[in-house]
């Protein structure tokens, strides 16, 4: 192509058509500039496409992380409600009959001994995205929503888990261990007799533990819909940016 243009220029010069030569030269320069601009535009388009694909991948990873948290909270919510239900049965039975119910006794004592309540609010995904260029490009409202979820809501849930672990440890040290109720190898009737000797403290411990579970479940119930809303907003942004 270059040789072709060169031959045209040489022909115009040899024929003494200087004016046409300069017009042709200018036209050739314009074509070259246009070609460069088109190439730059294509390159910019490819770069934007790559960046957009990377953004989509980061958003997908964030959505997956949020869905995982949601699944975990749904499971914890169901478990918490079962603890509350069992606790209410035993507490109400004791109030009405002044006796310890055997129906859920072993299950409740086992739950009261669980002092490893744990939730890791830290997320490598959030840490990566919050320090990336994607974070700067997201709308401010979406930034605030993500930040509120990971820093505030998950942080509050983490604190509730820590407090619940403290309740369980307190019960283990001050009631279960002194009464040799950590292993629960004895029959339910024998365990009932042991608990009955200190039934008021058992009920107080159970009510305290239940109050912590109620706080936790309330956090799950408000956070799960917020996670769903955030996922919807992320998907909307991804599909409409």
Automatic annotation (TrEMBL):
Entry's transmembrane regions: 21-42
Keywords of the record: Membrane, Transmembrane, Transmembrane helix
InterPro entries tied to this protein: DUF6090 (IPR045749)
Keyword Transmembrane helix: yes
Domain of life per record: Bacteria
Keyword Membrane among record annotations: yes
Pfam family for this entry, one: DUF6090
Protein name: Uncharacterized protein
């Amino acid at each position: 192509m270059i040789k072709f243009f060169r031959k045209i220029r040489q022909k115009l010069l040899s024929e003494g058509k200087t004016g046409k030569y300069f017009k042709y030269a200018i036209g050739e320069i314009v074509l070259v500039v246009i070609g460069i601009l088109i190439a730059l535009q294509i390159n910019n388009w490819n770069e934007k496409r790559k960046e957009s694909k990377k953004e989509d991948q980061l958003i997908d990873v964030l959505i997956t992380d949020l869905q995982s948290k949601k699944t975990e909270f749904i499971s914890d919510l169901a478990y918490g409600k079962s603890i509350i239900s069992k606790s209410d049965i035993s507490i109400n039975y004791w109030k009405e009959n002044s006796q310890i119910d055997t129906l859920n006794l072993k299950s409740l004592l086992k739950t009261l001994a669980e002092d490893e309540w744990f939730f890791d609010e830290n997320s490598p995904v959030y840490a990566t995205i919050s320090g990336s260029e994607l974070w700067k490009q997201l709308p401010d409202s979406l930034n605030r929503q993500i930040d509120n979820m990971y820093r505030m809501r998950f942080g509050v849930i983490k604190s509730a888990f820590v407090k619940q672990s403290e309740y369980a440890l307190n019960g283990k040290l001050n009631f279960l261990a002194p009464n040799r109720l950590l292993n629960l190898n004895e029959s339910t009737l024998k365990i009932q007799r042991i608990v009955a000797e200190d039934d008021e403290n058992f009920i107080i411990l159970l009510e305290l533990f239940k109050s912590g579970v109620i706080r936790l479940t309330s956090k799950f119930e408000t956070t799960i819909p917020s996670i769903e809303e955030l996922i919807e907003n992320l998907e909307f942004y991804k599909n409409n940016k």
